[in-house]
TrEMBL record:
Molecular function via GO: pyridoxal phosphate binding; transaminase activity
Domain of life per record: Eukaryota
Pfam families reported in the protein's UniProt record: Aminotran_3
Protein name: Glutamate-1-semialdehyde 2,1-aminomutase
Keyword Transport (UniProt): no
Xref: InterPro entries: Aminotrans_3 (IPR005814), PyrdxlP-dep_Trfase (IPR015424), PyrdxlP-dep_Trfase_major (IPR015421), PyrdxlP-dep_Trfase_small (IPR015422)
Family: Belongs to the class-III pyridoxal-phosphate-dependent aminotransferase family.
Keywords: Pyridoxal phosphate
Cofactor(s) the protein needs: pyridoxal 5'-phosphate
Keyword hit for Thylakoid: no
Length: 422
């Protein structure tokens, strides 16, 4: 860490200055880096460049939302053309309805869709409408779940997160009988079951098909609205993980990359639920944020969906991720190194396992954190940028060779971390 400080004096200075006007020197807690974050001056292709003149290959990809890399020419061209048509129109546009119809066609669960400004907002709106539709109060969420900055890390004890005031019932992920037990007393009060098909920020743990199907059955039994939060997992296929598994929720929430690089959220679902927003009816529910249909976002999103997020492109990217994860896991298991990567396709999470006895003592948690930190700094030294908490996400700017070279850097870094410990 001393080396880190010595290598990055300009970032350190910029960060200190930032702390004068921003708590912790930033405006996004999730990207803070201990002891201080690097300040990035610009990005190009798969690269980011920091204030101290270092260049890193970006394997965070803005926590999965930066799937296009920094300067996709198709997006740049569309956005530049859109600029000529006016920044804010404050009106219905064809681009908006075209993007909506693309999303309805892609996601089996979406008959009608509405846009918002973030995944967080999409989830808040989806929960609210699900409760309104069922006229119930309780919301089932899962331990380790993350649905946005005020809907996060349920059931985790090292939190400190703000939460929106819903009546949450936190159930165990990937445990359908535990979930059934937990809701037993509350069946008639549960309006919404909100779940990620893979825990994202909670460690990239995929939901088992049995668990997700079990939730589908449970929601039907008790009359609750099942919402899949596919804000991250939508990049696993053109129709998200629901399409791959053939499990159709009542509603789906989306965000991140569907804005083509701009702030975005969307929530959609069954016609009878989403029709509550139909402004033709006097009793309809109002939902009207200024930037819901921002022309730049709509153009960028539509262009991305039509020209970049094709099944072929997604398959290629996800295969690279699968190979990377499998190769690293093969190396660590063959060499009995207590380390693994979990995830699906191009979304991955690093795990250090200092002990295999399964107990979670404080010192083991500490060792995990230290392992991750060291791993992070070792990769930075090699010119790779991942998230400090160990999220690795690929983007379309990367070639097979890039991912192969990164795989080697990851394996070398794991070996260095364990060498430091012995
Ligand atoms: N749901 C999931 C599964 C997410 O991963 C995230 C963001 N990481 C969100 C919701 C929130 O999206 P946003 O950051 O756009 O509010």
């Amino acid at each position: 860490q001393t080396e880190y400080a010595q290598r990055n004096p300009r970032s350190y200075e910029a960060w200190q200055e930032a702390t004068l006007s921003l708590p912790g020197g930033g405006t996004r807690s999730s990207i803070f880096v201990h002891p201080f974050p690097l300040f990035i001056e610009r990005g190009e292709g798969k690269w980011v460049f920091d204030l101290d003149g270092h260049q890193y290959q970006d394997f965070v990809s803005d926590f999965t939302s930066g799937i296009y890399g920094k300067s996709n020419p198709i997006l740049k061209d569309a956005i530049t053309r859109a600029l000529d048509n006016g920044l804010q129109l404050g009106a219905h546009t064809k681009t908006e309805s075209l993007l909506a119809s693309e999303l309805c066609a892609r996601f089996p669960s979406i008959d009608l869709v509405r846009f918002a400004n973030s995944g967080t907002e999409a989830n808040i709106l989806a929960i609210s409408i699900g409760l309104e539709y069922t006229r119930r109060k309780k919301v089932v969420v899962f331990k380790g779940g993350y649905h946005g900055s005020v809907l996060s890390h349920f059931g985790e004890d090292d939190g400190g997160d703000l939460k929106v005031p819903y009546d949450f019932l936190v159930c165990p992920y990937n445990d359908i009988s535990g979930t059934r037990d937990a809701i037993e007393q509350h069946k008639d009060d549960i309006g919404v079951i909100l779940v990620e098909p893979m825990l994202g920020a909670g460690g990239c743990h995929p939901g088992t098909p049995d668990f997700l199907q079990g939730l589908r059955d449970l929601a039907d039994e008790i009359g609750a609205v099942l919402i899949f939060d596919e804000v991250q997992t939508a990049r696993l296929s053109t129709g998200g993980r629901q399409k791959i598994l053939g499990i159709t929720p009542d509603m789906t929430t989306l965000g991140k990359f569907f804005g083509g690089g701009f702030a975005f959220g969307a929530f959609g679902g069954k016609r009878e639920i989403m029709s509550l927003f139909d402004a033709r009816h006097p009793q309809s529910i109002a939902h009207g944020s200024t930037f819901n249909n921002s022309p730049l976002t709509m153009i960028a999103g539509l262009t991305a969906v039509q020209k970049i997020l094709t099944q072929e492109n997604l398959d290629k990217l996800n295969q690279m991720g699968d190979e990377f994860r499998e190769n690293v896991n093969l190396h660590t298991s063959q060499n009995a190194i207590p380390f693994s990567i979990t995830g699906l396709g191009s979304i991955n999470q690093v795990h250090f396992h200092p002990s295999t006895d399964g107990s979670q003592t404080q010192s083991q948690t500490q060792m995990r954190k230290e392992g991750l930190d060291l791993f992070y700094f070792k990769l930075l030294e090699k010119g790779y940028w991942i998230s400090q908490r160990g999220l690795i996400s690929l983007n379309f700017e990367m070639t097979r060779e890039d991912v192969k070279a990164f795989e080697k850097a990851v394996i070398d870094s794991i070996d260095q971390v364990y060498a430091c410990r012995t």
